[in-house]
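One-letter codes give the sequence; the integers encode the fold. A sample entry reads:
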Amino acid sequence: MRRAAQWFGVWLLIAALPCRAADLSAQQVREILAAAQGGHADLSGKALDGLDLSQLDFKRADLSGANLFGAKLDGADLSDADLSGARLDLASVMRTNFARADLSNASLFGLVVSTGLETSPAEAPSFRGANFSRARIIARLSRFDLSGANFTEAKMGADMKNQSMGLMRTDLSGANLAGANFTRADLGRALLRFANLAGADLAGANLSDADLSGADLSGADLTGADTTGADFGGAVLTGVRGLEEKGLAPATTR
């Protein structure tokens, strides 16, 4: 119930923000995609908020700066699409393919990733190799495939100034983050329990008060990262760079 209240708080906060009416209908979007014939359909800057765009093929489409607030993208293919600066707050992305998509500077608050309160592999979107650099993310991404994703300077930390409904933070528990780039990313208070962070680059990242208990950090780079108050209980720290400066005891390594 507490988790439900927290994410309901996210919904209320975002839903209160102003949105203009959609520029196109869902049918018009389908026609634009069909006319592009698998090419680079141009939907840049378009207001597409609230539209049902499920199952559509957006491969390589230009959606930079588009407003997809509350849009339904379930089962859509957004692989290699340009979503830089796009707004995807409260968008439904169950089974959506974001492989190698450019989500740099995008806003991803309260993504709808499952029909219930727990994430399911059958409903999980794929963000394999996606670019989240400088994106603002507060979402449930637990157990998702984010291997090789770029989170350079991404803002994923909890906003402690606005927590009236309880702590709202990014949940990456159990996610596949092998080889992901978190250089200088803000992961303050993020949940990374049992995440696969093998070979991940966390140099200069903010991990203060983050929960990394049970995570696999083998071969990861923590050089210059802020780990103040972070929980590494039971984490795999074999071959991690930057351990000496953290003063992590061998007992935390298995």
Observations:
- The longest helix spans residues 2-15.
- The two ends are 34 Å apart (CA to CA).
- The helical segments are 2-15, 26-36, 243-246.
